[in-house]
Amino acid sequence: MNMSPYLVPASPVVWEQEIKKSRFIAYLAHTPDAESARAFIGTVRAREPSAGHHCWAFVAGMPTDSRVLGFSDDGEPSGTAGKPMLAQLQGSGIGEITAVIARYFGGVKLGTGGLVRAYGGTLASALTQLNTVEQRIMASLHVRADYGDMALLEFLLGEYQGQWLQVDYGAEVTGMLSVEARAVAEFCRQLLDRSQGRVVARPVEPEAG
């Protein structure tokens, strides 16, 4: 899996244009998973109840993860809306994003090629209005340390922009940390070396199934 950070929407966008008397209104939002993507699609349907079509596409996860893709033509001719919208999202390199375009038919048929250009072009224009932020991929680590090593542990957490997920203070300090996935190996090595082997952090194994 690619552990590099990727961009996600910082805030929603609504962008509209008219093509041959049809209105195309694009809605973009941050949706970290398929459930939130489908909820957003439902929200747009409720907001634009009179639209003839609510075509959509989403990348509900990392932009390179083909398992989190979805699209729908919602009654438009097959391949004329959802697919060109998905192509725009994938081409943007942005993850955790859903796009819905509500179309109000204006009486002039656009043809299949015209629809592809209309839906793809509307979304392309909407994407130029989108502000993004960087999403880091984080990993969880189990750690056990003596109180005397806590200053070192806290210093390295600051250096690697990590944080505590949970911590228990007993005879020694135990807990779980969150560190950027691509820095895990180096963080663990630094912790081991600087504590002279006293502090060991181990990645949490993903649950099976």
What does this 3D model show about the protein?
- With 209 residues, the protein is of the alpha+beta class.
- The protein has two domains: 6-134, Impact, N-terminal domain (Ribosomal Protein S5, domain 2, 2-Layer Sandwich), CATH 3.30.230; 137-203, Alpha-Beta Plaits.
- Helices cover 30% and strands 33% of the residues.
- It has five helices and eleven strands; from the N terminus they run βββαββαβαββαββαβ.
- The strands form three sheets. Strands 2-3-6-4-5 form a five-stranded antiparallel sheet, with helices on both faces.
- Strand 9 (163-169) and strand 10 form a beta hairpin.
- Helix 2 packs parallel to helix 3 and helix 4 runs antiparallel to helix 5 (184-194).
- The chain is elongated.
- The relative contact order is 0.17.
- The model has no long low-confidence stretch (mean pLDDT 93).
**Secondary-structure element string:** EEEHEEHEHEEHEEHE
CATH class category name of the largest domain:
Alpha Beta
Structural class: alpha+beta
Q: Helical content, roughly? A: 25-40%
Query: Strand content of the residues, in percent?
Result: 25-35%
Described by strand count, sense and barrel closure, the largest sheet is: 5 strands, antiparallel
Radius of gyration (CA) equals 23 Å
GO molecular function: anion binding; guanyl ribonucleotide binding; ribonucleoside triphosphate phosphatase activity
InterPro entries: EFG_III/V, Impact, Impact_N, Impact_N_sf, Impact_YigZ-like, Ribosomal_Su5_D2-typ_SF, UPF0029_Impact_C, UPF0029_Impact_CS
GO biological process, one term: regulation of translational initiation
Domain UPF0029: 143-198
